[in-house]
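Weekly sync notes, structure subgroup
Attendees: PM, AL, DS (notes)

Item 1: joint prediction request from the bench team. They want all two components modeled as one assembly rather than separately. Inputs as received:
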Amino acid sequence: MGTAYTPGLKVSSKTTIRKTRRLPLKGEVNVKVGDHVLPDTVVARTELPGVMQTVRVAEYLGIEPSEVERVLKVAIGDEVEPGTVLAESRSFFGLFRNECKSPIAGTVEMISPISGHIGIRYKPTLVEVKAYIEGDIVEVLPEEGVVVETTGALIQGIFGVGGERLGEIKVVVAQPGEIVDEDSITDDLAGKVIVAGANITGMAIRKAAGIGVAGIVVGGIIDKDLVDYLGYDIGVAITGHEEIPTTLIATEGFGVMRMAHRTFELLKSLEGRQASINGATQIRAGVIRPEIIVPIKNIVVASVDSSAEQTLELGTRIRIIREPYFGMLGEVVALPPEPVLIESGAKVRTLKAKLENGEDVTVPRANVEIIQE
Amino acid sequence: MAEVKTILATDCGSTTTKAILIEKQGDEYRLVVRGEAPTTVEAPFDDVTVGVVNAVREVEELSGRKILFEGSNPGEGIKIQVPTKNDVGVDMYLSTSSAGGGLQMTVAGVVKMMSAESAQRAALGAGAIIMDTIAIDDGRKEYQKVERIRQLRPDMILMSGGTDGGTVKHLVDIAEMLISADPKPRLGIGVKLPVIYAGNKDAVEAVKQILGDRVDLRVVPNLRPTLDRENLQPAREAIHELFLQHVMQQAPGYSKLMTWTSSGIMSTPNAVGKIIQTIAEQEKINVLAVDIGGATTDVFSVFSGVFTRTVSANLGMSYSICNVLAEAGIENIRRWIPFLADEGYVRNQLRNKMIRPTTIPQTLRDLYIEQAVAREALRLAFEHHKSLARELKGVQQVRTIADAISQEGTGKTLVHLMDLDMIVGSGGILSHAPRRAEAALMMLDAYQPEGVTMLAVDSIFMMPQLGILSTIMPQAASQVFERDCLIKLGTSIVPVGIGKEGQTACTIAVRYRKSQECEAKTYAIPFGSIKVIPLGVGEKAEVVITPARGFDVGSGRGRLHTVEVEGGVVGLIIDARGRPLVIPSEDDKRIAKLREWMEALGLRPE
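Output from the run, pasted for the record:
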């Protein structure tokens, strides 16, 4: 009965963090199991093949496709430069010479006697995958990547934009309910990961981006401010590739939303430490949530039964994630087995929770998330 | 095969996994219970079977029947017992799926309006989402197409073009474009991208030579062997086979789920299409059906025996809710909200639904905001459907009904609302609407049916499961569909035209048929209003509709229309709001009108 719930976001001061660092296609792994790596250590690299450009040789020389082979000056596998003669034909008793030259530098990959085309592939682009967090290599995925493990703090946000960044944590508010405006964004925050409260104004986001703040972690963001910052509207929540200077992570949601006390206190305790952050979010087909990782050496991590922490039981600490109690924290005090009529008129499975303010409320089980340690 | 007495069927949606238990009671099959749980294709589970087991566990609890058992082999874990053994398990287990993004395809053809469109029809008919359609004449530069192919990471590519004996060169161009882009599949690193070739048979060798072993090439007969013939079935079968062999094997937990099922896993749109075709064929009616999910909205129609299916990717109620916002615009959503709602508030609420897609509205206001979005998602998906549901003008066709999706721009539309007999709504927002009248109003607003049309919903959202069952046990599927699935909301009568507010749009004389009695009542329906006349489930009445001048209900403007209608849980709904439906632009007038219409259907605006 305890399975109708939304798995919560992890907010932990001491945990084991494993990050799989994988290439987009097969390549070579540069490290081995046991190696200690830093965030910018290149752990794997590969070459992304360039696009192939088609040169319409037969059409250019005014000959039949089947004749192309006869006039070729290159073969498959040859490296060519711009201006390299690919094919040469002669006309009018050999007096006139027509040359078809390569427009690009690359490798001849295809010669088609059917179309009379030559395909030249651009030189490949080097793709490097860095470790992203400081830690140890615990697994090598042959030709694909590695798994880096570290101990430390892990905070998952609910939504973010912008990719992986590194910076020192700096809390710019005194309370998790505060709103950050542009006056709080000072030049000394360049390169830092700043922690705001319930909201950061659109002007402040732009100012932070302008001075080179690495990342912003905030309780809530206003939809319109996000759209203004990105310059476009997000239709489907697959993010992380935006070309923006500052990664933005919301821990609670959209609107002005006080950052959860525990999240705020944890971030405060990490002030001054180096954090690896990533705003990448993907809500479907393999959920990815944005994250703040702070490796801490020599800490003892309790082993937790991951299946046990997913179960909704009496006493489980929860956060409500939908109106009318959005963002409130509480403890499960009853799990009625039968569906209950709620204000919308639907009969759904609910739970009763005692909120932090002492109020007892009934909420759909679908509208809570378990607070994970 | 031993007699099948118990059937368990699941549908793994992008948000929720739904399980139904069917049992043979006497001579007929009936739904016993339904269970559901969040779909678990994501971290921390990354295994669809966790959600399946959770949904089945709910079925166990509600039915008292033991279905799951702990496997004895190490690491085997919990699984579904098939067939029944010592009163544990079920005799048959089936599953459909749209989780993990469903089946995503890119199609390519030579001529945009011909082979590329045939390829679209084949892919849509197989239940795929089309990410892009590439054609030699699609107006994009070659490098743009190459970049686009490279950028997309589809599950497979369908390549077509040229009649048999026709162009080879253009197919070679497409093959070269593919090689140039060097596309990778969405799932599985190092896995070769499946490419189905269904073009000119004379180009097969050339295409093979170019593509070589760079892709996983499958060759099937040409889907357009001559200009006037279309043969979509072989391509569709290849798509289905690759979906099972490739996509499902790569998706999290599906290879395990496939070992549990009594037959292969079917894509959800494919399964819903099967049951819709069955209804249309059995009842000999024109049907429009919709399945509005968390990520996509699938629309199905059968008009004059021609079946059309479209899948609108990124129009949905959870994952894609903000895409509905982006495509429809905030004003189009706000126009359906029966109270004053601040734009910023609505936008933030929709974003919050997007990032926490499994949550449900607790307050009435929250519910009405979601229902407003649903109207726009339904409307946009229907627009998409209409753009593809067109006849192949003047062309002889050899294709099955299932394949016969129309041709854009070259033929007349197949969707004639005045000829539509039934609209069936499915998907959480419609099937789980707290009050059935809400589903009726959403469909009336989104589709704006004309004349006389039955409105129905899938009672608990089980059309996908019945669709796959219909391929194995059609009779069992029909029995459950008729008795437990389809909930008739009532017949809608809509005079088409525009009049003055308050003036009579039509007069309706209703002659009830209750046993031997014959009662007759007459109603004058003012323009701009909705009226519900009591007519319950299974009840029939003869209605004589006299439209006012300029209004048409099926027999022509101002012409008397007599028809037998059936009731439903809502009743006989006379929608005299006019077509096209106009909503007042001023907030106070708009809200007053929306509330008036809701109250006419017995709904509480707040």
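Discussion: Chain A touches chain B through 66 residues (CB under 8 Å).
Action: AL to compare against the crosslinking data before next sync.
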